[in-house]
Write a structure and sequence with these properties.
two-stranded antiparallel sheet, 5-stranded parallel β-sheet, globular, alpha/beta
Length: about 375
């Protein structure tokens, strides 16, 4: 990729691990509540993770979570690899904006604001609100089986759009992001990325997608992943080239979003196989980044299981939710919120008034934006 102005290696230096010392302090504080050590199960683990991410003891309850959804169409869908017609992801976006999708309904019930970021929908931008389309890179992404999904400049633009959205959320005070996607063909791109990064064959990672596709559709999808792998393997050493080759604009933006969220110390709940694929690419860029994410749920997609295992992320829930849009991750959100409330409010046996510690951000603010331009 010539004339590149974006160096992903910078993220290895910019991303630090959550505050491990404070995690130990949280464990000690939890021990003084009088509850048996294993009584709260994974809620204790989540509370300690949030403590380290926030850099304070006791942890602050979560007050401003947000669902951020990246949207796009994929040219590979024209091969008949999805239960939905190619180029129709914009209908999913409209339904979400109207509040009729599962994710939108859950977000409304949980009082979580929804932000949709159009990166490559196959529709006229005028059909959607300007705040949705303002980061769009192109109209649909290229066919990953036979051509690059993005040009070099488009890949950079999509990645930068993701980092910009992460900065905007951090600056707005978002204290936890639930990350989702809306796409047609996106699980094919995700499976290709995961197969390439995990060194597996197409048949091992190709699932049925969000629409329980039939056997013939699955075979077409498997063939597309196989052909995409041939194009992905030669560029495995360069993550931005890999994203340009097979990921499309929405997955490329999500990768940038995850990395910059880690830079800005914003914890993220991952949804399904698409967000897991982006997280796996981001891990290759900066090995400390996964410490800032948790897996909200396990779907039946085999590629998601492989990616989460590679990142040592254990899903919070196993409900076999496939619908996408952040639905499965939203189901896990009350569990994360409950962990924060318990870690913040359970009384301890000693006066904890002077116990609160921080890493320089005790006022609850995010660190300042770090420029990756």
């Amino acid at each position: 990729m010539t004339d590149r102005t974006l160096d992903l290696d910078d993220f290895s230096d910019l991303i630090e691990r959550p505050h491990g010392g404070l995690r130990r302090d949280a464990e000690e504080r939890r021990a003084r509540t009088g509850l048996p050590a294993e009584a709260l199960g994974r809620l204790d683990e989540l509370g300690e993770w949030l403590t380290a991410a926030q850099g304070r003891v006791p942890v602050e309850p979560l007050r401003q979570p947000r669902l951020v959804v990246f949207a796009g169409d994929h040219g590979v869908a024209s091969l008949g690899v999805s239960s939905r017609p190619a180029g129709t992801a914009h209908t999913l976006v409209r339904e979400t904006l109207e509040g009729t999708t599962p994710a939108a309904i859950l977000a409304g019930r949980l009082e979580v604001p929804v932000r949709i970021v159009d990166m490559a929908l196959d529709c006229d931008p005028s059909e959607l609100p300007e705040e949705v389309t303002r980061h769009r890179v192109r109209r649909s992404s290229g066919r990953l089986d036979s051509e690059d999904t993005l040009t070099g400049p488009e890949a950079e633009a999509a990645f930068r759009a993701g980092t910009a959205v992460a900065d905007e959320e951090a600056d707005a005070g978002t204290d936890l992001v639930v990350l989702g996607d809306l796409s047609v063909g996106g699980t094919t791109a995700a499976a290709t990325l995961i197969a390439a990064l995990c060194g597996t064959d197409a048949s091992v990672v190709t699932g049925r997608g969000g629409g329980a596709i039939d056997d013939l559709t699955w075979m077409r999808k498997c063939a597309a992943v196989r052909d995409g792998l041939r194009r992905a393997r030669p560029v495995l050493g360069d993550q931005l080239e890999l994203l340009a080759a097979v990921a499309g604009a929405d997955l490329t933006a999500m990768t940038g979003f995850l990395l910059q969220s880690a830079v800005r110390r914003t914890p993220v709940v991952l949804d399904g196989v698409v967000t897991a694929a982006c997280a796996l690419v981001a891990q290759r860029v900066a090995f400390r980044a996964p410490d800032w994410w948790i897996a909200g749920h396990a779907s039946s997609e085999p590629a998601q299981a492989k990616a989460l295992d590679r990142m040592a992320l254990d899903p919070l829930l196993e409900q076999r939710v496939e619908v996408g849009g952040g639905t499965g991750a939203l189901l896990a959100l009350p569990m994360v919120q409950a962990a924060a409330e318990l870690a913040a409010r359970l009384p301890v046996s000693e006066d904890a008034e002077d116990e609160k510690k921080d890493d320089g951000y005790s006022d609850g603010a995010n660190p300042p934006a770090l420029d990756v331009t």
